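=== RUN LOG ===
request id: a7f3
mode: sequence -> structure
chains: 1
length: 223
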Amino acid sequence: MASGPRSRLKTGMAKVRIAAGLAVAAPLMTFIVLLLTRNGIVSLDLGLDLLTLKIASTLTWAALGYATASLVLSLPQFNRLGLISIAILIFCAGVSAAFFFQSRAIAVAGPLDVSTDLTEPPAVPGAAGAPVACPGVQAVMTQVAPAKATDALQAAGFSVTESQLFRSRGVRDGFWFGMGHEAVVRIRPDRTDVRVVARYDHTDGGATCKVAAKLVAALQAAP
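=== RESULT ===
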């Protein structure tokens, strides 16, 4: 008779281990794909759209379903398996929610080339087409010192690649799948304009405008 409870406990522990493995599978897969994409081994469309937002996201829901079933099956051994089953279920629910909301956010189409001056935008090498404005992101109506422009670029996460009397330029390698940007700060006697161009062709949930806003805020905050 003693072997019955031990056998059920052993089976329950096996299910808990499987649930735990599934719980970390999607985040681990995403991290590996992120590294592969950042290093150019897989394309952004393949790494982000297919492997992450489709396959890994589907895996999170499978993990959540298995964790739920594992909790139900662990009820007879709740004293030993209940708390860990609940913890795994909560973790899976959090991961699934994160994937769900992130996939919806990144699917929002935002401008990939933005500027505070649409009439005569700062020149960015390789930028094709005309930039657009970002809501609430405006030129700094003063002549910013060149040193402050470079400081602002660095504060916004850019590595400065060019620093001249009336122009500073920088690049920003985004951590998430290498979705980086290039920015130019143009300084004139009565105003300072910025232009930020995405170095990718993919919806980004408005990330380019957020980067531009951060750069303008850094310029305004420069002492």
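=== NOTES ===
The mean pLDDT is 88.
Strands lie at 113-115, 159-163, 167-172, 181-188, 191-198.
=== END ===
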